[in-house]
Amino acid sequence: MKIFFTTLIAVLLFGEGSILEPAQKKNNLKDSISSFNTDTIKARLIGLNKKTPIDISYTPELEDLIKKYLKNRKKFFNENAKLINYYFSIFEKALQNNKAPLELKYLPIIESRLNPRAISKAGATGLWQFMYAAAKENGLELNSYIDERMDPAKSSEAAAKYLLKLKESYNDWTLAIAAYNAGPRTISKAIIRSGGYKNFWNIRGFLPYETTRYVPSFIATMYVLEYANEHGIVLYKEGFTKNKTDTIHVKEQIAFSHIARFLEIPLDTIEFLNPSYIHKIIPKINNKTQAITLPENYTLLYAAREKELYDYAEKEFESTEKPLPDLYSINSKIIYKIKYGEYLGSISKKFGVKIADIMRWNNLSSDKIKENQRLIIFPKRIPKN
């Protein structure tokens, strides 16, 4: 599903047809034997280790993982090259602002496969897969209209700051990356159990299996994309990023569909650039200015016709029969265990939330639930019993 999302968006925004030129496709067929040679991989890992503060060490397991990624993920990287370049420009800006290693830009590929609307079974959300508590701790806003975990720029800024905090705690980037996956408590316990080692490679035996694979997966992804050309992966440098985007402040409540119709912008483009607006509506919140990202040429048009646009949006809202969703802050999370006879409709009424929200929070594809199943709920009200 995630692969489909990114491929679809790439086609929608960057135009149909192949990302690669015919000559480049030919080159992709040349998977040189040396690319899979152990000595070559070792030499390249040494080269990466010299250019980054992240500790990169060769292991046979890492070599196997690199070879696996080159075999199984090349198609994904080539088909989503424009998407990779678009998001990398956002990630690099946030990392640079916070003086963090630029190589951390590869983490969202592992976390979400570059899907800003990705939601895990545990409720981790967005490109950087922030859980609720970590999102709130790192300054991201969550309410019934906005989930900034899905905002590429804001979530990247929050992730860069969070990773820096983790690095300061452990004085080691591989441990910071491991803590990003498993949580600081898990890493601290593993350090104690290992006898005080403060290096990922020395405490691996005391970490959860997922985390023991997480750092090698990150390094393998870094290796494949740092040596993309050598492995027949063409990271296309032109496309949507060439057509610059800009952010404009929004003064009144307005829907994506209003902007799309009035300014004749493809609705898909607005949705892609602004994934954090849950209902595809930019709300008006007291004392807080919202913003929208648009292709640069449209921001000038937006500014020139702003008053007309807001008048148009007001009339459209008034003419619709469907009531707008309530605006409320999401200040707490509960894990709710489903009781016998309950269904999504009864649970949504109990907590004052919408069925669609419960499905989104829990990544449910249908309304079928069962007794004792656990649901993530961000309640609008807490029932008395």
Q: How would you describe this structure to a colleague?
A:
- With 385 residues, this protein is mainly alpha-helical.
- It has 3 domains: 2-140 and 150-231, Lysozyme, CATH 1.10.530.10; 245-319, no CATH class; 334-377, LysM domain (Membrane-bound Lytic Murein Transglycosylase D, Chain A).
- It is built from 19 helices and 6 strands.
- The chain has helices at 2-14, 22-28, 38-51, 60-72, 74-79, 81-97, 107-112, 132-137, 152-170, 173-182, 184-193, 200-203, 209-226, 256-263, 267-273, 296-304, 306-319, 344-351, 355-361, and strands at 245-250, 254-255, 281-282, 290-295, 334-337, 374-377.
- It has a two-stranded antiparallel ribbon with strand order 1-4.
- The longest helix is centred in the middle third of the chain and has 19 residues, at 152-170.
- The radius of gyration is 23 Å and the shape is globular.
- The two termini are 38 Å apart.
- The model is unreliable at 1-8 and 14-34 (pLDDT under 50).
